Structure formats: C-alpha cells, structure tokens
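Chain and backbone:
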Amino acid sequence: MNTVHKPVLMDEVIEALNPKANQNFIDGTLGGGGHAEEILKRTGPKGKVLGLDWDNEAVLRTKERLSDYGERLIPVNSSYINLKEVIQEEKFHEFSGILLDLGLSSDQLQISGRGFSFQKNEPLDMRFDAGRNELTAEIILNTWTEDKIEEIIREYGEDSWSRKIAKTIVERRQESPIKTTLDLVGLLIGALPKKKSKTHPATKTFQALRIAVNNELNNVRLALKDMINMLEPGSRLAVITFHSLEDRIVKQYFKQESIDCHCPPEIPVCRCEHKAQAKLITKKAVKPTDKEITENFRCRSAKLRVVEKI
C-alpha cells in the first residue's frame, strides 16, 4: 500500500541536521519515512538511517517503500524510548544527529484502522504498539472512574469542559459500551455547547485518550534525557511537537541542558554542579510557513526545536 504521509517542516529539519555524504542518522519516529528518505538521499553512497517506530505496520510500509535504499535504511519495530538498547543491538554507534517527529503520520490517521481519527468509524484502540500495549481507549472509556477520565481530558486535552465530558461518558456507558470512534464523537457533540470553532469538538478528547493510551508525555521526558547523553559533540537533536504539552517539555529540557548552574539565585555558590550539555540552535520554535500550512493543514501546530551537543 502506498504511503500518503507528508513529512512536516522538511526543509527546516534538513537545514538543522545538515546531513552530508556518508553520515549516519537516527529517525526515532520513522512513520511514513519522509524525513528518512530525504536524509538517505543526502548521505549517499554509504550513509545510513536507523529508523524506529513502535507501529509495526508503519515499519513494514516504509521498509517496502524505501526498499531501493537497501541496507542503508535499518527499520526497527520499537519505541524511541528503547533507543539505547536498539543502538546496542544494531551496533549503530556512530551517528551525526537524531530526529523525533512526535506527530501522527497521515498513514496512522487514514489507514491504520485504530481509531486515531474522529472522521472515520473505527474501533477505539489508539495504540501505536498494538502487539505489546494492552491498554486501549475503549478500556479507558468503559472502565476508568469518572474522576480519572476527567483528569486525563483536563490535563492531556487541556479541555475546560472535561468534567461535563467525563460525566457524560460514564452516564452513556451505563446504557451501552462506547466502542467506536463515531460512538464517542456523537457523545461529545451532544455533551458540548454548540458554538463556532476552528477545531472539531472531539479533537481534545481524542488527543487526551491517545496520550494516555501510549504514555506519550512520560516517554518524551525519558527519551530526551537519554538522547542528549547519546549524542557526540557537534551532533544535533531535532524534535517536532504538535501540541503545547509536548512542546513545553522539550522547550524546558533544552533550556535546562543549555545552562550550567540550576541553583536558585539566592545561593551565591553553585551546589548542583550541573554543566550544560548542549547549545540551543533554535532560540525560538520554528513553525511551518503559510505555504506549507496551505498544502498540509495538519501541520499548522507543528513546532521544531533543535540543540547541538557540546
């Protein structure tokens, strides 16, 4: 099956990583392989890309699509949080940069059949790694307490209507289980006030459920620390986020690792002994151009941040 994925911020990512002939790179979120393909084009004839994705279907699709690159692409069905172990297993120790694109690929939205999109009627699964993760959105909606559901919608969806939504979910499931995306969409449309908005009323709840199912925010925190430590001096880490929660984590961690002392200002002598590990390449987040947003509306919330190991 042909991929429909459009890589986000392609020019900006390539400029940040600056891939050259025979260099190796890591794509921690391989997805449709758009970024990886462009890096492979620029790192021939011997440069390699180690690409990880915990969605095995995405790995298989991209491996087939980029088969012309042969062994230069090393696709692995694993999460970026396991990067340290994957590097050891693949003996991929020399690389010039790491990319993390934390958005859903168009393939996952349109052809995965796992309920990521509220525009199709699919089972409420939302797992990236269906083989190893037992928690699904359906389980959350039909078994978690009202307080817990409210908490994830409020914190992960940043939705001010979280209490009303959670109450409606619990009331509805007492009548019949909430099993499909359209079950949930209909419930949300009925629960929320009718008003004009650029975003669909299901957007925030779907985001919250996906984050909860895949433990996304904690994974990002753990991965950033590991990746900074893995980089060699002069190599770069580029991260694309798509919502404020992830972007805040990346922004704060990059800032933290770009300064030495973390002691409070009232302490005259440093006691933490922290030393900066990286320098900020992007002082502010890089955003898509108007032209890119016109061509690919899903990229409108994307932000790119980049650091270089020192």
